[in-house]
Amino acid sequence: MTGDVKVISGTAHPGLAQDICRHLGLPVCRSTVVRFSNENMLVQIEENVREADVFVVQPSCPPVSDGIIELLMTIDALRHASAGRITAVLPYFPYTRSDKKDRPRISITARLMADLLQTAGANRALTMDLHSPQVQGFFRIPADQLQAAPILCDYLRQSRDLSNYVLVAGDVGESKEVEHYATRLNLPIAIVDKRRDGDDEQARATDLIGHVQGKVALIVDDEVASGGTLLEAARVVLERGAAAVEACVVHPVLSGHAVERLQTSPIRQLVVTDTIPLPPQKRIERIHVQSVAGLFAEAIRAIHDGSSVSRLFR
User: Per the residue annotation, which of 6, 101, 176, 194 is the catalytic one?
Assistant: First the structure.
């Protein structure tokens, strides 16, 4: 049996860790990260964690590699401080797109990340909406994957009249995930036939399966990086007669010029979660953020108590 719950925040997203602790009625466990002039780091846990049930919150966001090393060092420090159990909480999992060997002599880096967490000393992992379901199978330790769909669907249902909406999957691979939204919202689905060549992140939509004529097209995806998939999907549905376009995405990576592209796009609102921090320059009016802190707090409470995490999916 493990002792008291302690939540440690990495430097990647302290705001989310604080919100999780607010839901749990706990203070954030004190820790320090020092960055030296030679770009080395030092992580120190400033509280007694002996036999504690510790949850380390650190999503993948820039600088990605620094965040990964910091997380591994924090887990290692906790292990040597005799923590009872260590759970790595990664709302957005690093290298989640690198989930298969689709060309010669490459790393399946998502599996490597799972291996590194275990090697560092993590006993469990907690994440949200992995890019591909097989990534959960890369773990040799217990790994729980939360879904943002209940939170996002509740917001969509409460904030607008959905009677003239159609859900749009940004590509064929995303269509399975869109089913979760379609079931909850009782909406039809259309699918964009998208092709991607090479590593230039330039997605090219070639066709549309389904009907969007006269409807509001709500594009659903697990993440938005450069924005290419969203913009291509928006272009296709408008060409096929959609009355308007909105989007709903779990992880707002928004890399490069994505925010500027969104600002000048026909997408009238983008609904995202706070799995990744949004700096002030990215908080434009048409981006609406829904918090997942309460859901992660409930998952942490369930893991600590030994109760069901899967009930949170319903």
Answer: 194
